[in-house]
Specification:
about 350 residues, alpha/beta, Rossmann fold, 8-stranded mixed sheet, 4-stranded antiparallel sheet, 11 helices, 12 strands, globular, ATP-binding
Length: about 350
């Protein structure tokens, strides 16, 4: 395979809350075998920004989110790169190098994650009140112990933030709540210690459309109110367009396009991004027939030479099967908002016309 050596990581953006540089994530598949699920991913996320990671199932979105907080299963490891985070005290740390106790304090205080499937994230034998109390107690500093009544009052205020009835929800077990209520309770729990970064993995999956709408609207309001940054992992392009300031498209473990939401949805410069968008019926304008994307993603253990998308790409040229493209900046902007695409034909004006993708 003609896989060029990864370039040296770019220097971290001084104003960024999170700077990801050249991250690889491996899974152990046997005693002496590994597969790389995320390859050379890098991006910056500034305070208050919202970024969506989109792509087909298996492209590495969730693995990347888990890896950023070192929440991977025992078979997974961040094998290369840096995850630089600016803490509340102004210090910049590499999450990969945090000691066990410091990592425990980092999670929830600095960055928290809302997992896919709220029912699986709750302990079914504990009430919602118990979950809040356990979280607060686990992160209390010595000499700063708060009363139980104070913690319950704080928990109630958090539930009110997500428009839930505290009296009812705090006393309930997870199975006594609807799917939407559980998801909102989980978001409130993730915000308990006012983290600077909230990572959400498919937070509206399996919820009805009205509940999805309520959660999306409240997340938007909470982000503006509390000023946390958000990394939103989803396969729902409509949610990405609505919730995110910027979008990163992943394919076969790599970031293949990143830019503002308008860049990606109206000026996409990667055939895969464009194919994803064209596979979804438009919600406005003239109705069009969705275009299916033939084939499937390659095996991560046997990636094709050159561009991983070339075997499925309708616009591939012979060179695409020989040369692996790197992210090339097409439009430079501050605060991590540059538009970049990993396509050898990204500058082909005839292939990528200006305007809406559809």
């Amino acid at each position: 395979m003609n896989d060029r050596p990864a370039p040296a990581p770019d220097p971290a953006d001084d104003g960024a809350l999170l700077s990801v540089r050249g991250v690889d994530i491996d899974y152990r598949t046997g005693r002496r075998s590994r597969v790389t699920a995320v390859r050379g991913v890098g991006f910056d996320l500034h305070p208050g920004q919202s970024m969506a990671l989109v792509g087909e199932s298996g492209c590495g979105k969730t693995t990347l989110g888990l890896g950023l907080l070192r929440l991977l299963p025992r078979t997974g490891t961040v094998s290369a790169g840096q995850v630089l985070f600016r803490r509340k005290d102004g210090r910049r740390v590499d999450v990969r190098s945090l000691a066990k106790e410091d990592l425990r304090r980092f999670r929830w205080n600095e960055a928290a994650m809302v997992f896919q499937g709220a029912m699986n994230a709750f302990n079914p034998v504990l009430t919602v009140r118990d979950h809040f109390l356990d979280t607060f107690r686990a992160h209390e500093r010595r000499g700063a112990r708060r009363t139980r009544a104070d913690l319950i009052e704080h928990s109630a205020a958090l539930l009110e933030l997500v428009r839930l009835d505290p009296a009812r929800v705090l006393a309930a077990h997870p199975h006594e709540l609807s799917g939407g209520m559980r998801q909102r309770a989980l978001i409130a729990l993730a915000l308990a210690l006012r983290p600077q970064l909230l990572i959400l993995d498919e937070p509206t999956t399996a919820l009805d459309i009205l509940t999805q709408r309520a959660i999306v609207e409240r997340l938007t309001e909470l982000r503006e109110e509390l000023r946390f940054a958000m990394l939103f992992i989803t396969h729902d392009l409509g949610l990405a367009a609505e919730l995110a300031d910027r979008v990163g498209t992943m394919y076969a473990g790599r970031m293949i396009e990143t830019g503002t939401t308008r860049d990606v949805f109206h000026r996409s410069r990667h055939p895969y991004t464009r194919a994803l968008i064209n596979s979804v019926p438009p919600v406005a304008g003239d109705p069009t027939v969705p275009e299916s994307l033939p084939g499937g993603p390659p095996s991560l253990g046997a990636l094709p030479p050159g561009c991983s998308f070339a075997p499925r790409c309708a616009h591939a040229e012979p060179r695409c099967s020989r040369t692996r493209p790197e992210l090339d900046v097409l439009r430079e902007r501050p605060e991590g908002l540059s538009h970049a695409a990993a396509c050898l034909r990204a500058g082909d004006a005839a292939l990528f016309t200006e305007g809406a993708t559809r």
